[in-house]
Design goal:
heterodimer, A: MetI-like fold, MetI-like fold, 2 domains, 73% helix, globular, B: alpha+beta, Rossmann fold, OB fold (Dihydrolipoamide Acetyltransferase, E2P), 21 strands, elongated
């Protein structure tokens, strides 16, 4: 036998159960307490505390629900969510069916356009639609007046309907993602099985295909609804000028001068409650019947032949894409290159000054973009490392009750961004930490907000890794840390990069939590764009929004190289 | 001296007892298989030996030193063992050479020494020319060889194999059985081999531990297990067999369709159920009444199957209800329904529990 430096018989006897990696695990658990548990606890506590003294009180709730217009805002949000989700369903479901199950032309193109919609931040979309459908000056109105000779255009973005349309246009990708994922799991064999038992195409569709996809569609609708009620930017840009409030804009007003965080916390509770409830419902729906379709995977799928109708499908897809991508981007580009966007497409109206101004002259615009990327980078890195650690602990069952840690990682998913920000404000703004307005509080909030994405991806990646790979390291004398460093990390490189991008890209656009936590030196690009919209500087704003979009493209490309073309759409569906 | 000693080891998962009261001693250089159906506790036992799981009760000793007990376990990385996994667990991010050299690197050997040893072991498993390849470029059999080389090159105190051949196709499996035994004969490493495939265990092992429902049924050399199974489970699990129920009747034991003198059959004077295992190969089949020393039993062919290497007949003794299975040479042909004679040697009937 070779002399091995590993262990003499004496060393065997001394070896106890202590393992230095435990320190690392303890640190990760502590981080999770800071990121998830304490903001949530403070959110609840603060809602019951008197402003100055901190004594227990119910007066915050009395204030928060004491006025009719506060209550109205709650109902506005619910209606907004319901209508936006329904309209998004109208956009998404035919497209999903067309792409996943038929021979419609341009299926790849449609997918790409849905992705383009998906990576358009809601506030960018809202701004574009203000350019398109603003009363009188909006391009669509002007076109209508030009064609009909009418005095006024029919469209007014500053209305409840306008807000519903804008939100639906930029949240329908969620339903599309869920529905295509489900339809792609329904193999043709399942439909064949119904056909051979005597069911016609229509009955098969009604009894087999649709029921199999229905849980996913419902799940997508619920996510859309939650997205709509949690959204801050579009309502702030559209509802406030239209003189109505929703929950998020009302919360923003509670945060105005003077900051009434206690009232805001109390007022946030219904939003939190509805979200938790609906996420539970969504999980229930998708885990019951949806699960059965998983066994259908791998079956052959033949596209359904639509005949001449395929061109109608294609037309519908392009119509939706015109509303969400083509028209908005055409007029964003026009506005970004215009001296004054209202003067239209003439050569003497073209200038690069807007880009020059936001990049080099504006006091904070360029810095805000840099801030966005720095904070997003830090948050994505932190979230990936933390969730990787926790997913490892959970999948390898290293500590008792590890599932609780996994639960904490996905818990922020049910906390809307504005509510999360209020929790962070309550927990970390007061002394001794006094983090309000610092880069740190933004990074922490972003990290927490995107922990669920990180966790879902990290645990999926770890589950795909046979534990025997690590056991082989250990049995040959390597420690657990060596197994992590030499085997686990190199093997997960690609999926971790993917998870990082899936966090980084949305984090560069994050507005709803940032708007409550930024300070004079820590303004991020999304906040900058929001400020510009309040000032009515649409030319600068368009330039900045386009810069942000263009900067995203290489990242998207990188992600597609690492994980395949559909990575953004597919991975999000898993969350 | 015993190399590895398991004393009354058990392992519980909640209310389920995966391994119960398992005791075994391995001599230095011995090759022992743990054989049993899936869920019998063999892999759990192996993982306890490796140190991945602590025993719920009992202890494990190596070279007289305790390495596992319910109160503490020497971690796997300090046991100087190595293991071959069902999935091979070849690291796809490392080349063949890096995979095989990993254990030596951990042992802080010099680069030159590592190279020398890696080359030597790759020669042994005939993989030297593929040293620079990545595992994704290798076939299943080649990956298996890398796993073998990686486990053996560190010259472990004990080598553990967890169903290493179950992912290979039949021909390769047969080849690798002999390869594993050849490597054992060359390096004389104390080996514990987990499998559910009886022929794998028989080809490779010095002794076989047959396990069922977490308990040891029998520990013996392969030919003893086959020839003298002690329990109904072992007789049925190792090879095919006929179970014959006997009833004592004066000086005879009466079976279904024939009778044997009590003096000729094993344990006929014992108490309890008289259950015997009779291998199909141990029964003679002739057209005329045999005049050998065994019992001659007149029978009728009720069913048959031709398997190329042998005929598998079902012959029901006249006056009996259940047919007896008989294997014969492929040239010996009887039609279904034809009258034949069985020749049964009472000494070949093994009493089982």
């Amino acid at each position: 036998m070779a002399e091995s430096s590993l262990a003499s018989p004496a060393a065997i006897q001394r070896a106890g159960r202590w393992d230095p990696t435990w320190l690392l695990w303890a640190a990760i658990i502590a981080i999770l307490l800071v990121l998830v548990v304490s903001p949530f606890v403070y959110l609840v506590l603060t809602s019951f505390q008197a402003e100055k003294t901190g004594d227990f009180t119910l007066s915050n709730y009395v204030t928060a629900y004491g006025r009719a217009r506060y209550i109205d805002a709650l109902f506005n949000s619910l209606q907004l969510g319901a209508w936006a989700a329904l309209l998004a369903g109208v956009f998404a479901i035919p497209l999903a069916w067309g792409v996943a199950r038929t021979d419609m032309p341009g299926r790849g193109l449609t997918r790409m356009l849905v992705l383009a919609t998906f990576i358009t931040p809601p506030y960018t979309g809202a701004v574009a639609w203000i350019l398109l459908a603003g009363p009188n000056a909006g391009w669509l109105n002007r076109f209508y007046m030009f064609v009909t000779g009418a005095e006024a255009g029919p469209l007014n973005i500053y209305s409840f309907t306008g807000l519903v349309v804008v939100i639906a246009l930029y949240s329908f990708p969620y339903i599309f993602i869920f529905t295509t994922a489900a339809l792609e799991l329904v193999s043709s064999e399942m439909e064949d099985a119904a056909n051979i038992l005597g069911a016609g195409t229509w009955r098969t569709m009604r009894r087999v295909t649709l029921p199999l996809a229905l849980p996913a569609i419902m799940g997508g609708l619920i996510i859309c609804f939650l997205e709509a009620i949690a959204l801050f930017a579009s309502p702030a840009m559209i509802a406030i000028p239209a003189r109505f409030n929703v929950v998020t804009t009302q919360l923003y007003q509670f945060f105005g001068n003077p900051v009434r965080v206690e009232v805001a916390a109390a007022y946030a509770m219904p939003l939190l409650g509805v979200t938790v409830l609906l996420i539970l419902v969504q999980r229930l729906i998708t885990s019951r019947k949806g699960f059965a379709t998983l066994t259908g995977k791998g079956g052959e799928r033949r596209p359904i032949r639509l005949g001449p109708w395929r061109w109608a499908m294609f037309g519908y897809a392009m119509l939706v894409a015109s509303l969400s991508v083509f028209l908005p981007y055409i007029f964003l580009v026009q506005s970004s290159l215009a001296k004054a966007w209202g003067r239209g497409f003439s050569l003497d109206n073209i200038t690069l000054r807007n880009f020059d101004f936001v990049l080099f002259e504006h006091a904070t615009a360029a810095k805000s973009v840099i801030n966005s990327f720095l904070y997003a980078g830090a948050a994505a890195t932190a979230a990936v490392l933390i969730t990787l650690g926790i997913a490892y602990i959970v999948t390898r069952r290293l500590v008792p009750f590890a599932e609780v840690l996994g639960f904490l990682c996905v818990a922020p998913f049910v906390i809307p961004g504005v509510v999360l920000a209020i929790g962070f404000y309550a927990a970390y703004a007061p002394p001794p930490l006094s983090l309000y307005g610092t880069a740190l509080i933004l990074i922490l909030a972003f990290t927490t907000r995107f922990l669920p994405i990180g966790y879902v991806n990290a645990s999926a990646a770890l589950r795909s890794l046979n534990p025997e790979m690590e056991e082989a390291v250990r049995v040959l004398g390597g420690s657990r840390l060596m197994a992590l460093r030499r085997v686990v990390a190199p093997l997960l490189k690609r999926s971790l990069l993917g998870a990082w991008l899936l966090i980084f890209i949305p984090a560069t656009r994050e507005l709803s939590s940032a708007i409550f936590l930024y300070g004079p030196n820590t303004k991020v690009a999304s906040v900058m764009i929001f400020d510009m919209s309040e000032e009515g500087n649409f030319e600068y704003l368009s330039a900045l929004a386009l810069i942000l979009q263009v900067l995203t493209l290489p990242l998207l490309y990188l992600g597609q190289r690492a994980l395949g073309r559909d990575f953004m759409l597919r991975r999000t569906a898993a969350t | 001296m015993s190399k590895l000693v398991l004393k009354n080891v058990s392992r519980r998962y909640g209310a389920v007892e995966a391994v119960a009261d398992f005791s075994l001693e391995l001599q230095k250089g011995e090759f022992v298989s743990l054989l049993g159906p899936s869920g019998c506790g063999k892999t759990t036992t192996l993982r306890m030996i490796a140190g991945f799981a602590p025993p719920s009760t009992g202890t494990i000793e190596m070279d007289g030193q305790q390495i596992s007990s319910p109160s503490g376990v020497v971690p796997p990385e300090r046991r100087r063992m190595s293991m071959i996994f069902q999935s091979y667990a070849i690291w796809p991010n490392m080349t063949v050479g890096e995979n095989v050299g990993f254990g030596l690197q951990v042992r802080k050997m010099s680069r030159a020494e590592i190279d020398r040893r890696v080359d030597a072991i790759l020669d042994v498993v005939q993989m030297r020319n593929l040293k620079g390849r990545y595992p994704a470029e290798l076939s299943g059999g080649q990956q298996q060889r890398v796993a073998l080389a990686r486990a053996i090159v560190v010259e472990p105190e004990v080598l553990l194999l967890d169903e290493p051949l179950s992912n290979l196709d039949a021909n390769l499996r047969e080849e690798m059985r002999f390869e594993i035994r050849r490597l054992h004969d060359e390096f004389k490493i104390t080996t514990v081999y987990v499998t559910h495939d009886q022929s794998e265990a028989m080809v490779t092992s010095d002794r076989i531990v047959v396990m069922n429902k977490g308990r040891i049924e029998q520990v013996d050399a392969p030919h003893v297990l086959y020839g003298r199974p002690r329990s109904r489970f072992v007789a049925g699990f190792i090879g095919r067999t006929n179970f014959l129920e006997g009833a004592r009747n004066g000086n005879d034991v009466r079976f279904d369709g024939f009778t044997a003198p009590a003096g000729a059959v094993e344990g006929a004077n014992g108490t309890g159920e008289l259950l015997y295992s009779l291998r199909p190969q141990a029964v003679g089949l002739t057209a005329q009444k045999p005049n050998g020393p065994g019992l001659a039993v007149e029978a009728e062919i009720t069913d048959r199957a031709y398997l190329g290497e042998y005929w598998d007949y079902q012959a029901r003794p006249l006056g009996g209800a259940k047919p007896i299975r008989v294997s014969t040479a492929p040239t010996l042909v009887f039609e279904v329904g034809s009258h034949v004679w069985l020749e049964i040697d009472p000494a070949a009937m093994v009493r089982v529990e």
